[in-house]
Amino acid sequence: MRISGRASGSDVLVIGGGIIGLVTAWRAAQRGLGVTVADPAPGRGAAQVAAGMLAAVTELHYGEQMLLGLNLASAARYPAFVAELEEASGRDTGFRACGTLAVALDSDDRAHLRELHALQERSGLESTWLSGRECRRLEPMLAPGVRGGLRVDGDHQVDPRRLASALLTACERAGVAFRRTTAERLTVAGGRATGALLGDGTKFAADQVVLAAGSLSGRLAGLPPELVPPVRPVKGQVLRLTVPPAYAPFLSRTVRAVVRGGHLYLVPRENGELVIGATSEELGWDTTVTAGGVYELLRDAHELVPGITELPLTETLAGLRPASPDNAPLLGPTALPGLLLATGHHRNGVLLTPVTGDAMADALTTGELPEAARPFDPGRFGPAAPAPVLQEQPV
Ligand code: GLY
């Protein structure tokens, strides 16, 4: 299907080289399509901040039953996905089948967790209620005050930075081309998307364009107003600590908690990194790390696991989740022929990477999403509301 005789073009142009753009490019290239990714810094983006929990069960929310099905489908694909990706790239992804413990610190947290447990059971999910003593037997570093918790052995983790590097290498090895520049404007002719004007001045032609620019997806110029994806940035501040070998194993699995209504998680990696996250802030494009954000994370994490104050704090970072109106992604063809979306993954971009790659490759090769991804059709919100405008940002 590769188109010949074009100075600058390919079958597919993917706008955005985060993990969603990269997995789309990799899977499409594996199906024989000529693919180019436009991004000034492919492999960067929200994955550099994300903790990498694959928390389909412990991050379940009321009203997200439709998303749960997609999350579970993607979680089930993870072991085979990372095995294939590691083979294709020669790189480790840090996937760890360690399970998760979600704990309660006071009676309100405990009531909240009981509700979550009931919802999980109604949804047919595997989750076991433990007493505080049982929680501490599993994770001795937990505070003595822990009132109880949920053991979820199926919620694992991956290292999003290593995942992004592996996807980048797999793309390169599969023949994906990279244009290390922004996409400035979608080009449209004869009632279909025809490519994009790139930041280096090139007019890049493509049979199909995939917009996978994360929280910036609504900012691409040239989109028909009714097709502007309703995606907004939701800020998350995250800390990275290091567990010195003498302290290991500090935690043996992901530990989550609701502390005074806020969600907190500690994700321990095999290499000694301990990720603590995350704030959730509606502040537009702001990615400032604030004293207040760091304070709240450390205060709550200290209440949960007092020993963290002994650990070196190695990094503080903020990133932007690409949130949609129903917290679920926008996947597949739009009403403009030749334009597809893969964006709006909000809290679940890392978890949904495998299923997104497969769904988008299907859409690019057959024109249709697979059954499981059809509820995430970008047209489900109707004509677009105006994208949030705070300041100009190139895509
Ligand atoms: N999924 C974790 C977060 O969005 O903070």
Topology:
Blueprint: E1 9-15, H1 19-30, E2 35-38, E3 53-54, H2 65-89, E4 100-104, H3 107-122, E5 128-131, H4 132-138, E6 148-152, E7 156-157, H5 160-173, E8 177-179, E9 183-189, E10 192-198, E11 203-211, E12 232-242, E13 254-259, E14 262-268, E15 273-277, H6 291-304, E16 313-323, E17 330-333, E18 339-343, H7 353-366
Helix pairs in contact: 1-5, 1-7, 2-5, 2-7
The structure holds glycine.
Residues 53, 59, 236, 277-278, 321, 347 line the site of glycine (GLY).
**Overall shape:** globular
Structural class designation: alpha/beta
CATH topology assignment of the largest domain: FAD/NAD(P)-binding domain
What is the number of beta strands? 18
In total, the number of domains comes to 2
Beta-strand content estimate: 25-35%
The CATH fourth-level homologous superfamily of the largest domain: FAD/NAD(P)-binding domain
CATH class of the largest domain: Alpha Beta
The major sheet is characterized as: 8 strands, mixed
- The number of helical runs is 7
